[in-house]
Description:
Number of strands of chain A: 0
Shape of chain A: elongated
Mean pLDDT of chain B: 85
Helix content of chain A: 40-55%
Oligomer: heterodimer
Number of helices of chain A: 4
Shape of chain B: elongated
Distance between the termini of chain A: 71 Å
Amino acid sequence: MRRSLQFLLFTASILTLFLLLPLHARLSQIRTDSDMKQQVPLLRSLHVTDLCLSTEARYTRHPAMADSHAPFQDHPLALEHFPSGSLILPLPPREKP
Amino acid sequence: MKRAVERHLNILEFTLASLLRRRGKNLSLLVIYLLVIFMLASLVFFVSALKREAAIILNDAPDMVVQRLMAGRQDLVPAGYAAEIARIRGVTAVRPRLWGYYYDALNGANYTIMAGDDPATAPGLASVGAGVAKARNLAVGDLLPLISYDKTPLMLEIDTIFPNESDLIAADLIVISRADFLQLFNFPSGQATDLAVTVRNPKELPTVAAKIVSQFPDSRPVLKSEIQRTYQSIFDWRGGMTLMVLTAALLSFIIFAWDKATGLSAEERKEIGILKSIGWETSDVLLLKFWEGIVISLTAFLLGTVLAYGHVFFLSAPLFAQALKGWSVIYPRFQLVPVVDGYQLAVLFFLTVVPYTTATVIPCWRAATIDPDAAMRY
Lengths: 97, 378
């Protein structure tokens, strides 16, 4: 087979895979629509406020509940020493009630 | 029509032969290009999926959480606050929440301990996240000893281990009864960590929050919309991890494009000169270079995106995990539900494939329009 046809065949196969990605994603979403939260009603009843992205510091474990006005919460002059803290943006300003 | 297809096939044939002649250079170019696309696409998939998960999980967040501040830091909320807040018009329920952190000296892990309202959470029983179970090698029915704040051991029997799929909520979570929580932390009774407030009409939330602040000046209400905004900003493209990866990838890409756009090598110029002298039209030469750009960039884009999808959704994004993990002992396994954001992939395509192909064609067009003799002598 000509090299150009081999290349086109290869490109067509990865293009097919690429085009199948949204389909796979949609099917996975439908499959998990019943959702892990419904599997564990206890978790749902806890009404969690934060995602467990990192467990090394209070303000990265529960960013929504953290004292955003006191970012260095360990002691005065403590520098940021948790790696995940440097990857999380400062929180947006709070809405004035 | 057939003639045009044949012409393209012939030029593509020549392009592939030409690329294979400089195999080492082009292969390394393809690999680096593929890595750039792989990182960017992984980030797009990772962030889109996390945003979706956050939206679903935080949908169950309380309408408002009321904290109390003391000397600028969060303090316990007296039960009296809950009773007063429940009287505010529009408030349907106030639930004092008991939660805190427990440092496990055995393995250096930090657990989040919550007191459950569920009647299934009987004293002496605990439901733990998969991360905790793994860190302490626990199975259902095992005993989990925790040291309370008055230094007495609290023995908890494992009742449930939350499945791996709930790691994004519960990897480090231990749910125990209220009585056990009070005993573990020597927690003063009649106090709560914070209050979860439910309001009948979400439009009234700011008004209710204002009333709470005026009634209790030391309180700080955190609205559900603020919690959701916090997570939107964490996954925002302008900062943190996204910016770090984006900057590295874009810089690498600029180096590529710069290298390509600043001109052709003497060998390439000579090749163009020879092709023109044996009868190739300028359009043929441009088509050749166009195909060269397409072969490299389209292959890198398609392969990079497909590999990124596998990296994030089948392998749980191990490359990003290292960045987020930091010093955490317990770390969730990101079993994310796949999300494909067509718009962001389209942006990625137009930011990488199009400029690269253009950067390949333009210097070649300059070389192809000069006299073949001059191009060969260059």
